[in-house]
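Example record

One chain of 236 residues, shown exactly as stored in the release files.
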Amino acid sequence: MKKTVVFFLLILKAVCSFSQNSAYEFYKSAILNDSQKDYTAALHDLDNALGQNPNYDSAYCLQGFINYKMGEYKTAIKLLDKAIKLKPAYFDALNGRGIVKAQLKDYIGAIKDFNKAIELNPTKPKPYYNRALAKAHLDDYESAIKDLDKSITIDANYANAFYSRAFWKDLSGDYVGAVADYKKVIELDPGYREAYVGLATTMYQHGDKANACELLKSAAERGSIMADELVIKLCN
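Predicted structure tokens for this chain:
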């Protein structure tokens, strides 16, 4: 009898191990399909992974991200909720849910999720950047700029953070700071067309038409339709 019980437990352990391995293989396949933008195949893989392991928090999280990319924001929230319920201290899921909430214009809810993500890992720049965007939608530019300061302190090459900070500095009346940040974006990424347009419009509004037009022409040469239209409108 004892041998039978031991044998049964070994079989059960092997089945559970096989199930977990199968779930992970489906999850890896989903990551590959997601990278190829084959979202239907990726979601099918994740359904299979969850069929093998219904408590697979990473699978729910990836399902949420894929639904977000597909524009299915409410479904994405539900899936990320499941991931966070299974793993309350899930940094990626909390940060991701904050992004989706912001898309749904739930900026207060988004900020709460970014706050939690920052508490979990205060050395990551993206939650500060994401929180800044949410705060800016609530017209809290001063606090948004402080978050971008923190994001840039963590990652001195974060071009998007410099770009956003330039935009809100300009809105807040800090012309010198805005110009410096736009120039930093261009230094970090010479192909960042929006930075040329942003810098040009800021300079134009402050009376520097000649340099503004040169910047707009540079942006137009890099394929910016907006810059091309502004050259016609402002520089002829």
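Notes: Residues 5-19 have pLDDT under 50 and may be disordered.
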